[in-house]
Design a protein that fits this description.
This protein is mainly α. The longest helix has 30 residues. The radius of gyration is 19 Å and the shape is elongated.
Length: 214
């Protein structure tokens, strides 16, 4: 597979269209049922364009999984930057659950996004190569959220009952689990977010307490 860092802008644009098309296709029918032809048709490319960028659809799947992880970490950081501009983090002691809920709301995922992440996980259970990549990407996600949690604690606004890494993993797991249950229940986007935020708030209430950080 071509290294993205050495890929020309035009080639990367092609790869991005393939990833976007694959994300929709994998979410709709799963990796096993998805065909290269269906992905190419959705992206508006030929099979030749596909195979000049990816050796297999599994290679594209793995690349897509990495992109999803990076995007989720990026959205966490963007949300924290927004809260900092609004001055919300400076007043976090009085808004602990609200702010933490906003930070951990990493994906703003719709049904397709939840289905795609579930598809990635199920295949990671069966593929040692994908499992290793998935766990590495998950660790990156946890590390990103943990760093943010640590930065908030350094501001003396909150005391965490767990180390930042453990708190981050618990909050992310809670959000993802609640999202999956909401999709299974047929919830729309608003309901999905509401249920997930409520679950995160319940767990955050157990993890956080106002006061100077220890």
């Amino acid at each position: 597979m071509t290294d993205v860092a050495t890929t020309s802008p035009r080639r990367e644009a092609t790869r991005q269209k393939l990833r976007d098309a694959a994300a929709q296709t994998f979410a709709e029918v799963g990796l096993d049922a998805a065909s290269v032809e269906a992905i190419c048709e959705r992206a508006g490319f030929t099979r030749g364009a596909f195979y000049s960028n990816y050796e297999t659809k599994e290679g594209l799947f793995l690349d897509l999984a990495g992109e999803v992880a990076r995007e989720r970490v990026g959205m966490v950081r963007e949300r924290v930057a927004e809260l900092q501009r609004e001055g919300a983090l400076a007043e976090v002691a009085g808004r602990a659950l609200e702010v933490v809920g906003q930070i951990v709301d990493t994906s703003h995922e719709d049904r397709a996004g939840v289905l795609l992440m579930s598809e990635i996980r199920i295949h990671a259970l069966r593929s040692p190569e994908l499992a290793a990549a998935y766990l590495a990407q998950e660790d990156e996600m946890v590390a990103g959220v943990a760093q943010i949690i640590a930065e908030i604690a350094d501001g003396d606004a909150l005391r965490f009952r767990l180390e930042p890494e453990h708190a981050a993993r618990m909050l992310i797991t809670t959000w993802e689990s609640a999202s999956v249950r909401a999709v299974m229940a047929g919830a729309d986007q608003d309901e999905l977010c509401r249920r997930s935020n409520e679950e995160v708030a319940r767990v955050a209430q157990l993890l956080l307490e106002a006061g100077p950080a220890v």
